[in-house]
Amino acid sequence: MLLEKIKTPGLSHLSYLVGSGGKAAVIDPRRDCECYVDLARSHGLEITHIFETHRNEDLVSGSAILKAMTGARVLHGPNAAGDVAYADTAREGDEFEIGQLMIRVLETPGHTDDHLAFVLHDTEYPDGPVGVFTGDALFVGDVGRTDFYPDRRREVAGLLYDSLQKILALGDQAILYPAHGAGSVCGSGMAEREFSTLGHERANNPRLQIESREAFIDFKLAENHYQPPYFELMERLNLEGGAPAPRVARPRRLSLPELEGLEYDHLVDVREPLAFAAGHLPGSMNLPVGMISAFAGWFIREGETVALVASAEDQLEAATTHLMRIALDRIVGGYTGVVPAAAQGKDMNTIPTIGTSEVENRLRSREQNWTLLDVRDADERSQNSIAGSKHIYVGELNERYRDLDPARHYTLMCASGMRATVAAGWLASRGFDRLDVYLGSMGAWEASHD
Questions:
Q1: What's the pTM value of the predicted model, to 2 decimals?
Q2: 303-313 per-position pLDDT tens digit
């Protein structure tokens, strides 16, 4: 008997392979799905079923691709936003045998209308379920977001509350298997830990401590969530069925003359923020490898082409993999020679960094034609902010940069300076040239004002 969790870094996506008696099932596979076949066959298992907990918004589902590879049956919930072309519909109470294991379907709408949970039973131990795959309804330390149906906000928040009660009724012994861990855009309060039980969550999950259905609904309506443009692309592909991932994750290696001779929509520097700030190719923006999954979908649109700049080949490969998982993979090539290019006299742009004392001086003197621009999310800013600063969430600069004056001087800040550098890089790529970054940002400000 086998139960393996497969984690996708960046997206913090969790998928699962369960198997018994020569059969296996996959829950919520990602687009690059050869790993499931390899793992199943290494244990002498054949994948016969693929279960989708819901229509994913933040990554391309691998279900259609895995179905083509294995012939497995795909099951998806009712009330989808359209015809899920590659799946059959599973409904409340349906049961599927995987050797000694049995998977039973619960309809759990709220996060999405088509949301399902899959309850795992060991038929040799019939007293209660062993675990439950909860998708984006229940996480370790948090619950799913309910902002995808703005015209039905109260209704869907109430549906999630009801679905959570249905899941909790499975019993405190059931192990929780969510579809995401900490760092996912699908929740803001997830624990770093990726293991729990329903009993532990009942006792400790803050969202499950809310006393009434109405109070829970009010809490959900007060949450702030952002929906990057690529969510719409994911929703469409996850109805149609996404294409297989590129077989080679490394982009074509480019020399500097080749890079300068190419046409592309975005030049994306995937090095760390301080390296980017110290020197980068003119026209490039900064999306560090570890931040691509969170922010690429704000700035890169479907069909747009990308050239990558990195420090090393492994960065190019990692960046390509992250972009492929959200279907932004029209990558024309990759370049790894920023430092040698600078040594050969190639002109580089820089983004200066400043400290707390300089920010204080500018605020105190009310420096003309200068703005301290806070790019954290709304929840962070509501907890603490610097008087006199302006707020635009980093992702929303994808369009709202047009509201800013390129002739004005902007200091970008966030919690530490990481997202601020992403924001500054985007503005620089749009023609803004009076920029600097508050190094340490809110963390440094609070440390100096204790």
A1: 0.93
A2: 999 999 999 99
End-to-end Cα, the chain, rounded Å:
55
Which residue type sits at 378? A
Q: What residues of the chain score a pLDDT lower than 50?
A: none
Which residues are within 8 A (CB) of 324 and not within 5 positions of it... i.e. 6 or more apart?
31, 32, 245, 246, 249
Cα–Cα distance, 284 to 266 (Å, whole number): 7
Sheet holding 131-135, edge to edge: 95-98, 101-107, 116-122, 131-135, 175-178
Rounded-to-integer distance, Cα 289 and Cα 370, Å: 31
- pLDDT tens digits along 3-40: 999 999 889 999 999 999 999 999 999 999 999 999 99
Q: Decide: 53 and 75 in contact? Cβ < 8 Å.
A: no
Tokens 């370049």 belong to: 335
Cβ(234)–Cβ(326) below 8 Å: yes
Q: Output the six-digit token pair for 270.
A: 């995937």
Residue 174 sits at the vertex; the CA angle it makes with 171 and 178, to the nearest 5 degrees, is 120
**Amino acid present at 267:** L
pLDDT, tens digit, 9 for 90 and up, residues 375-399: 999 999 999 999 999 999 999 999 9
- Sheet of 46-51, strands arranged across: 2-8, 13-20, 23-27, 46-51, 73-76, 88-89
The whole-angstrom separation of Cα 411 and Cα 408 is 10
Domains of the chain: 2-240 (3.60.15.10), 256-340 (3.40.250.10), 353-448 (3.40.250.10)
